[in-house]
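Tokens in:
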């Protein structure tokens, strides 16, 4: 969902104070299509329609977020004021290109992981400021998990917390302050620390910056230690499409990848007026 103030902020940034280029053409009713120039997974449908609704542009589409589309496929057919369509053009193409790129990258990673296990592929908070909710929704469209949207969703105990307080004290403090709906997650860098965290009551144990072999050994140690069934084992740090297969075989529950977003390439989409 895009709020009116967000739409107006994006339009203000793009149109500026003296838009002559869009007003050069006669003001008349026109039709156009928006299509992809490469194979992709679709994301950003609701974002795009928010701009269309605001500017009074009629639209139709046969696609939903998460659909796979081949090169040349039409995402939207639109009609309306020539001025409105020209003013919407760059904004909707930017959002579609960026979000479809994230969804496509995510889908590729999910497909790789599914060949080896049912591990969940998640993103991180390494997002573009101001665009996080859209980027995370694109991850969802690609079949991934959004992880935390912000610091309030889950209590994350990171390495700097541990350096200042230690594992057990950090978890005990978090449990005292947590609401009953909040899970507690902690980053650990060794198998021994993972076992300490599980014993102290962590809900999610993130194995941080471990290689695949070390992750496999740590998961085995945790299982032999009879950790509670509800504890989720996550791995993160330096994981990308090139080494994902090795991590998908380790037995973890979640693989979180900042690269789902910050290493995604935009999809080339275009708007063409129909004569």
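Residues out:
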């Amino acid at each position: 969902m895009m709020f009116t103030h967000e739409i107006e902020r994006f339009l203000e940034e793009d149109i500026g104070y003296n838009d002559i280029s869009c007003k050069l053409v006669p003001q008349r009713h026109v039709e156009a299509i928006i299509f992809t120039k490469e194979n992709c997974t679709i994301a950003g449908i609701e974002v795009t329609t928010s701009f269309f609704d605001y500017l009074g542009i009629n639209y139709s589409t046969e696609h939903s977020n998460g659909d796979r589309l081949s090169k040349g496929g039409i995402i939207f057919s639109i009609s309306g004021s020539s001025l409105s369509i020209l003013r919407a053009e760059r904004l909707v193409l930017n959002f579609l290109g960026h979000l479809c790129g994230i969804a496509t990258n995510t889908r590729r990673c999910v497909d790789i992981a599914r060949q080896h296990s049912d591990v969940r592929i998640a993103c991180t908070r390494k997002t573009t400021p101001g665009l996080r909710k859209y980027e995370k929704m694109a991850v969802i469209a690609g079949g991934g998990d959004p992880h935390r949207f912000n610091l309030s969703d889950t209590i994350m105990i990171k390495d700097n917390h541990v350096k200042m307080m230690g594992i057990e004290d950090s978890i005990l403090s978090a449990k005292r302050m947590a609401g009953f709906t909040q899970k507690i997650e902690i980053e650990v860098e060794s198998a021994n620390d993972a076992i300490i965290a599980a014993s102290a009551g962590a809900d999610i144990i993130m194995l941080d910056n471990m290689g695949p072999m070390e992750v496999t050994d740590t998961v085995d140690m945790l299982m032999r230690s009879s950790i509670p069934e509800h504890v989720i084992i996550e791995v993160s740090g330096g994981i990308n499409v090139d080494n994902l297969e090795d991590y998908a075989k380790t037995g973890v529950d979640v693989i979180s990848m900042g690269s789902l977003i910050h290493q995604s390439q935009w999809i080339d989409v275009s708007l063409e007026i129909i004569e």
